[in-house]
Recover the amino acids of this structure.
């Protein structure tokens, strides 16, 4: 009989050590554990990446007798080796999946188990370049699994040895069950049982075969958030009527399709997919999350009203997939084939994809397998990259006949590239209105794609903008204020949610997350595009914009509650609600009622002295404060942490350019274009200085930094950036300007007059 032991306690941790014979200087830790829980979130791109060792003693007497013993590791980032008593037994590449090691043959009475984990850079394990921290550690649970010699397979890509494939046929469902058994003997039997959601036995059958099919009459469908009904399949391995081993899994019966005109269809009904993306880390914990953290995340996602989650950019914890099944979320699951194609990484993409599919096959929540994310940063024509995608696409279709393939394309990738046509459906990451361009460009771009490729379903895999606790009454692209983030998402909601043909939309991101290379917004080491803060303590105003469109839970939300001190005599106050009418009161006096089919209500409020504002919608209300001040509260103004130069320190004479002007406005002037060419030459020199020697020798290479090609499309997107913001973003690519260089650039710009057409804006 199978025995499962959670093995998280009493580990010794050795940081920066690669010799497993070292026995002194260890730190006592409990799993899950990451050694980058602090330095991976504080900025500087200097978090520790290297070898660390986890050790623990295993006494054979603590295990059941006459059993095979497997060590199950549910997450070791990103490569790991297992040693028993100094002998290396296994190696694994890929930091986000479950893998196991059979340690039976080498066990003595007392054994030292050592797991060497490494998250150092290399050229063959994904990810190697991406906008998130690659936390090192044994950051998920570790188990001991003890089974008899004949048992359900534990060696094939971390799977359970049980695959359930339900196919809906009218009012019924055909459920095919396939088991994989190690060392099955003649006469061994398998007892198959299916239970309903209440635990009642529906059907049962005993057979000698490792496969079985059942007919479920009047099947109860898994129907997303409306009705996430789950059955359970249990299979028992019997010998002479004695139980040897058993496995079980929950499953859901549902059909789905993705139509290029109608979007996502679940069980024959149109079921719009509007939701979020999710990273698995958290402030102070890194990626070493506990069950309560996963539970809080799913509840927040449920509250916002999402129907779908893109679980980016890697395989997530099985517990979270289980929660998605239970809550009825529709899931995009993917591997970390991201940003930079590695010529030596093909085998790793294949092994990570096999693990993803095998380990998650039974989850009804998953409908698409993601092949890659923004992998064409350096161009989409690389033959090796294209072949890699065809291999993955064919692999997934061979392993799973029931689901579709997808991928997330980087914004600059031309929609007519052959690469874009590889998967069954496709989505794009677009940040018009944040990384260049304007918010108004988003919807029309997707209309153009839809018209160009009417038979290829198109979705939105990422869109968003950053917001911290900065505030303004005149929000502008790149100001990192909560008000601009709210405006941006209002505009994107109106554009994306009204285009029925989009098969799915995923906000980037549900939560702020660790990105140690980032130095933006005044709080380094994080990406702040979340609708909720990194510690999950604060829901930004944009959270409620989505709740107003997606949630059936009645509510009203008064925006700007952190923006109390305001200088203007009349200020704009925004209210979000999914109720049809909102009334606003200022110091008890009604400013009237407003209706909005878009769920966004705007009021002009006199700003005199101190005011209490109350928004009322039906039986619900929300309250905030206003205070008239003579000057802007400096606590509301963005201050870049460690910035060489802040925007308010830039001299900007009237009618002249400065570092605070957008690149597109500067390019509207002849002299501005000439100045830009000077900047481009300076950038090229800095990028050339960063190149490895072998790349410097290459002739005809396009300008690039850290794998990002400075293409014409990328330059076009830069038009929406101010020069100062552009120099800050380029800093993420290890290209920096000194304060003196920036001030010199500003003086050059100050000499250039703005065209009259810009002065009239």
């Amino acid at each position: 009989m199978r025995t499962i032991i959670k093995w998280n306690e009493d580990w010794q941790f050795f940081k920066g050590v690669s010799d497993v014979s070292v026995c002194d200087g260890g730190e006592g830790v409990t799993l899950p554990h990451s050694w980058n829980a602090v330095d991976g979130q504080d900025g500087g791109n200097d978090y520790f990446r290297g070898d660390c060792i986890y050790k623990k003693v295993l006494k054979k007497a603590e295990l059941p007798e006459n059993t095979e013993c497997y060590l199950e590791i549910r997450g070791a980032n990103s490569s790991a080796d297992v040693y028993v008593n100094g002998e290396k037994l296994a190696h694994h590449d890929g930091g986000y999946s479950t893998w196991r090691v059979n340690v039976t043959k080498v066990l003595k009475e007392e054994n030292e188990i050592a797991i060497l984990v490494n998250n150092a850079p290399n050229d063959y394990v994904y990810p190697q370049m991406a906008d998130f921290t690659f936390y090192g550690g044994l950051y998920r649970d570790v188990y001991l699994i003890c089974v008899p010699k004949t048992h359900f397979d534990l060696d094939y890509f971390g799977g359970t040895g049980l695959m359930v494939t339900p196919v809906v046929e009218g009012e019924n469902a055909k459920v095919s069950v396939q088991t994989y058994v190690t060392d099955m003997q003649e006469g061994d039997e398998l007892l198959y049982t299916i239970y309903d959601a209440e635990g009642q036995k529906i059907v049962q059958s005993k057979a000698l075969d490792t496969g079985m099919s059942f007919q479920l009459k009047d099947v109860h469908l898994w129907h997303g958030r409306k009705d996430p009904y789950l059955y359970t399949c249990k299979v028992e391995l019997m010998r002479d009527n004695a139980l040897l081993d058993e496995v079980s899994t929950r499953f859901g019966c549902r059909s789905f399709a993705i139509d290029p005109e109608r979007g996502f269809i679940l069980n024959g009904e149109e079921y719009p997919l509007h939701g979020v993306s999710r990273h698995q880390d958290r402030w102070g914990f890194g990626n070493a999350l506990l069950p309560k953290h996963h539970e809080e995340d799913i509840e927040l996602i449920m509250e916002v009203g999402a129907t779908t989650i893109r679980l980016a950019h890697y395989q997530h914890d099985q517990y979270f997939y289980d929660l998605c099944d239970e809550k009825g979320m529709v899931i995009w699951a993917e591997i970390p084939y991201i940003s930079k194609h590695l010529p030596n990484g093909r085998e790793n993409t294949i092994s990570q994809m096999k693990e993803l599919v095998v380990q998650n096959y039974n989850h009804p929540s998953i409908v698409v397998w993601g092949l890659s994310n923004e992998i064409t940063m350096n161009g989409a024509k690389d033959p090796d990259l294209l072949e890699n995608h065809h291999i993955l696409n064919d692999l997934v279709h061979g392993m799973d006949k029931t689901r579709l393939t997808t991928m997330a394309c980087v914004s600059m990738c031309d929609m007519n590239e052959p690469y874009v046509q590889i998967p069954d459906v496709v989505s794009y990451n677009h940040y018009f209105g944040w990384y260049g361009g304007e918010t108004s460009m988003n919807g029309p771009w997707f209309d153009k794609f839809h018209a160009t490729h009417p038979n290829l379903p198109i979705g939105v895999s990422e869109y968003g903008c950053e917001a911290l606790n900065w505030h303004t009454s005149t929000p502008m692209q790149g100001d990192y204020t909560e008000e601009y983030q709210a405006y941006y998402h209002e505009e994107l909601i109106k554009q994306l949610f009204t285009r029925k043909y989009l098969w799915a939309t995923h906000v980037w991101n549900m939560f702020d997350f660790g990105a140690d290379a980032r130095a933006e917004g005044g709080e380094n080491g994080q990406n702040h595009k979340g609708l909720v803060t990194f510690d999950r303590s604060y829901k930004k105003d944009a959270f409620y914009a989505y709740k107003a469109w997606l949630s059936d839970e009645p509510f009203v939300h008064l925006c700007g509650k952190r923006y109390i001190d305001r200088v203007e005599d009349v200020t704009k106050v925004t209210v979000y609600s999914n109720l049809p009418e909102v009334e606003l009161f200022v110091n008890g006096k009604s400013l009237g009622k407003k209706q909005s089919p878009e769920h966004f209500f705007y009021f002009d409020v006199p700003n005199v002295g101190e005011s209490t504002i109350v928004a009322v919608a039906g039986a619900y209300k929300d309250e905030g404060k206003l205070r008239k001040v003579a000057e802007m509260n400096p606590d509301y103004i963005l201050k870049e942490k460690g910035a060489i130069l802040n925007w308010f320190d830039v001299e900007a004479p009237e009618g002249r350019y400065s570092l605070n002007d957008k690149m597109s406005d500067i390019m509207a002037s002849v002299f501005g274009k000439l100045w830009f060419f000077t900047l481009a030459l300076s950038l090229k020199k800095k990028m050339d200085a960063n190149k490895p020697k072998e790349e410097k020798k290459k002739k005809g290479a396009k300008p690039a930094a850290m794998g990002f090609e400075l293409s014409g499309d990328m330059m076009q997107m830069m038009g929406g950036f101010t020069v100062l913001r552009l120099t800050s973003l380029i800093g993420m690519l290890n290209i920096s300007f000194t304060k003196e260089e920036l001030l010199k650039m500003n003086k050059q710009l100050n000499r250039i007059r703005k065209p009259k057409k810009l002065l009239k804006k």
